[in-house]
């Protein structure tokens, strides 16, 4: 029962917000209430999973492997909790941006429902214990994201939206093919059942399936060289939408990789392929960020770079690596969403996204400077922020595991330093120097309202709340990393998951 | 009149003609296709009944909420193509219920159906059978998941109506624009 609520409540909310489409206030109340309720459910699930093992819900009463199961173990409950909290903050920000831009009475028959549908898709992706449902979850998520990225748009954004849609459809097609191949090879799509049956397949076939899964989720997670679509499409959406996508969608890809690689394709030793991909992703991403002038593009490239950090944790393939990745995902969802929200605030203040055309914001908007500085330093991993805690967990996982991982651990440090350089560069150009007048909005009709200098206070509050969440992660680093360490142990041991889904017989 | 003249100009080849409700006294006769209108009048109720049939038999036989909803949606498409709406007026203006509301109600019904079993301690989305005795007609077995199908049915009908409203009247508006451009 409980694991189904994070999926069903947002869908119910989506239906309800369409029905009350004439009353903007009702839509806002429903959206916020539903996401707050899901956060509570996620917190309860996390406590239950941490104390008593994975919580399983059998849909329609059909047991695995025949029926579809929803499984909330430590990893999925933790990611569900942090994702929903971030989604809630982004929704509050978006609501107040819409009030500031379009007026208090403007209702929308698409924004709120689609936003909630996206949230339902993300929840389903975390909770499902079934490969085909995972595909459905991705499709729900992507279909909603197509709408959000192309709403109230102009030709330029349609073009970049097209890139996003085509790439996503390609990866969905690949995913569906993979599901079909997996089913043909094993006769099941239940993840726990697959864990046992894939191990019985010939090694070559296992490798092919593992590679297909890697490419499919690699596109969603934007691993270099499959990242090219991301810096082109994300920066062109409105700030809250970009924040949501950057915070959640790529991380869902990482989650899917983490789940499938630990459960279905476990490797006893560090994966060389993933180590190489992690290094390339970290370096290419951060170098791309250094070459950009557009604030949102810089953040998008940094996002790509930090996907490499999570792939590194994945490549180590032991319990510490998996736990480190989980901790890093938690930290990164929060900080990346915060940075894009701050970028939206900066853009509204300055009227431009080009960091060369900004300057002197530290004097004019000191609050904004603080709101940018904290997540930026967190992203770079300066102690004592959550970024430092997460990177430390990854480095500890990598350092003891042989020469190859130690070398890549060095690259992690290098990429962190380059990230620091990239955010300091932004800081110097945007916040120091001579104050400049805001540029006028050159396209008042689109969704990107810039240069209005009229920003609702709740937008600052929502952003500050996310900064506070990020600081809380740093403050609660001890208990949190204990949870992620246990989550990592669960993932690598596999037995808690298998036992919960298939019953005692499966836990042999 | 040559065959050339009776052809509808290209921007209007697919534009629906006359009124959505197929009024009897239509001043303009040149753009109506009598055959299609007549067919639509006869087929519309029959297709709707067929869609309800598909909805009801869906649990045991071929059909269900999705296909039933699509068939019902097709009935509306047929009526739209045959009757159209005058001057690009939205269908919703005549149906009284806005299509998104139909979608929303359908989604709510489906999700509530999924949640109701949980209130009785059963797993989410599980279903039960109820036997009903109707005088004259005999025994009926109603499966509780029929409510889910009804939700899906409404959702699909709503989506098709919304498509007609946005794309259908959009095409008409383009056709009218092209017409006025050609005239000027």
UniProtKB/TrEMBL annotation, chain A:
GO biological process: ATP synthesis coupled electron transport
Coiled-coil stretches: none
GO molecular function, one term: NADH dehydrogenase (ubiquinone) activity
Keyword Calcium: no
Catalytic EC class: oxidoreductase
E.C. no: 1.6.99.5
Transmembrane segments: 26-48, 78-95, 107-126, 132-149, 161-185, 205-230, 237-258, 270-291, 298-316, 328-346, 367-383, 403-428
Broad class of the protein's primary localization: membrane
Any single GO CC term annotated in Swiss-Prot or TrEMBL for this entry: plasma membrane
Keywords: Cell membrane, Membrane, Oxidoreductase, Transmembrane, Transmembrane helix
Domain NADH:quinone oxidoreductase/Mrp antiporter transmembrane: 129-411
Keyword Transmembrane helix: yes
Superkingdom in the source lineage: Bacteria
Subcellular location: Cell membrane; Membrane
Membrane-related topology note: Multi-pass membrane protein
NCBIfam families noted in UniProt: PRK12665.1
Family to which the UniProt record says this protein belongs: Belongs to the CPA3 antiporters (TC 2.A.63) subunit D family.
Record-given protein name: NADH dehydrogenase (Quinone)
UniProt source species: Pseudonocardia dioxanivorans (strain ATCC 55486 / DSM 44775 / JCM 13855 / CB1190)
TrEMBL record, chain B:
UniProt key word Transmembrane: yes
Record field: transmembrane: 38-57, 63-81, 101-122, 142-164
Compartment annotation: Cell membrane
Protein name, entry field: MnhB domain-containing protein
InterPro entries: CPA3_antiporter_subunitB (IPR050622), MnhB (IPR007182)
Lineage top rank: taxon: Bacteria
PANTHER family named in the record: NA(+)/H(+) ANTIPORTER SUBUNIT B, NA(+)_H(+) ANTIPORTER SUBUNIT B
Domain Na+/H+ antiporter MnhB subunit-related protein span(s) in chain numbering: 36-161
Keywords associated with the record: Cell membrane, Membrane, Transmembrane, Transmembrane helix
Similarity comment: family membership: Belongs to the CPA3 antiporters (TC 2.A.63) subunit B family.
Annotated membrane topology: Multi-pass membrane protein
